[in-house]
Here is the input.
Amino acid sequence: MTTSLLIVGHANTGKTSLIRTLIRDHEFGDVQNYSGTTRHVEKISLLLGDQPLLDLIDTPGFEDSISLWQNRQRHEHQHVSNEKWLELVQQDSSLIADFEQELKVIKQLSRCDIILYVIDLRQAPLGKYLDELSILACANKPIVPILNFSRNASNHEKEWKRCLAERQLHAYVRYDTVAFYLADERKLYQTLQSLLPEQYDQLQALTKQREQDAELRLANTKTALAELLINCATTQQLCQSNTPTANESNAFEDSIRELENRFVERCLNLYAFRKEDVALEALPIHQGQWQQDLFDADTLKSWGISTGSSAATGAVIGAGIDILSAGLTLGTATTLGALIGAGLQTGRSFKSILFNKLRNRSVLALKPESLITIFWRSAKLISHLHHRGHASQEAYQGESASKIPSTDIAHLEVLFQKLSQRSEWQSISQLPDHALIRKLNQEIETAVESNQ
Ligand SMILES: Nc1nc2c(ncn2[C@@H]2O[C@H](COP(=O)(O)OP(=O)(O)O)[C@@H](O)[C@H]2O)c(=O)[nH]1
Ligand SMILES: [Mg+2]
Here is the structure.
């Protein structure tokens, strides 16, 4: 059985936006910041699994409820019932010109099961809104007021609640189609459950499905962030000389930006948002990279090569190539493979081949500060997407890195330094169960949660 919910209210209160948020789709209808965008009645079904559970019916906004309600007060209508009056106004052709939009709504009233009356809390409960409620009440159907724009700083919630209570409308739902909270949606379904006892179980299942979907999305984005950070921390670029050329630096920066772009895309897909919903400024990594001398003991150690192991045995060479391959970009690894392959044939030692071929070269990698910036802005992005309604019109621009609390920085630096040394983790399909990864996941958890 499908229940039909009629979404009504004054123009521009967020009716179409509410539907977009409920179905998680910004393609539905037209949303604009001016009145009269929705001119027709439009319907879309909200599914439980693949079965329609709720039909959401979008309507044009009321424009002149005061005059229409005056028609109800006219002498000839004094002794007709409310429902009869609704029939009469639909038959009265003299009203069509003045109340075109209202009549479209009234036509739907007799067909729906529940009316969701959307209120823009930024507006006081003026007479025109109260007349809209009076007209809707004539249908003798349950009305659920949706207090929209509820996260707007200056709102008239108190006055509205009083007016609604005077009309016996106690079961309202606070909502915000731009700053979205799952708890608000849960409250809406709970209210519907109380009005539709025969649909109780399905609505319960729908709420559960929504919650599980949200948890899964959040968990997946956090994993994507852990992978991004490991990939960024372990990306290194071998340069031709001691000082990287501009081309080498640019190529390195591009590879990091590409990793971040792929992360953003993955998050947008998970949350069913569009590319244009996020417009982060380019990652400020210029001068956030550091150069390493290839034969610095720490550099070699970071690749797992002990400087003590000079014996050119097949095992050491094999392990060396693998470790270097994992630590360097693909192109570099191939070059090294060729170099060492050639060296083997001539019987020269692994270390001396490397030393001869690679001395005077340098390596580019990200500084911990840059990794902290990526960590911080990505965690903020996840928090934002988690609460972004599908009616949001403005692209998310990201947070400035200057807002990172200084208390968070020191221990993150240590963590990222250690991660940079785990080049064997780059581009692996599943993150290992390792203390460093657990610490990283914990940091991600804390950063995302602190913004919820
Ligand atoms: N901040 C905020 N903006 C909203 C909210 N609901 C709708 N809007 C914006 O208000 C404008 C009108 O929304 P729309 O859904 O077209 O209203 P409708 O005419 O009632 O269908 C759009 O610019 C929406 O992005 C809300 O809860 N909070
Ligand atoms: Mg609309």
Q: What stands out?
A: Residues 214-449 form one domain.
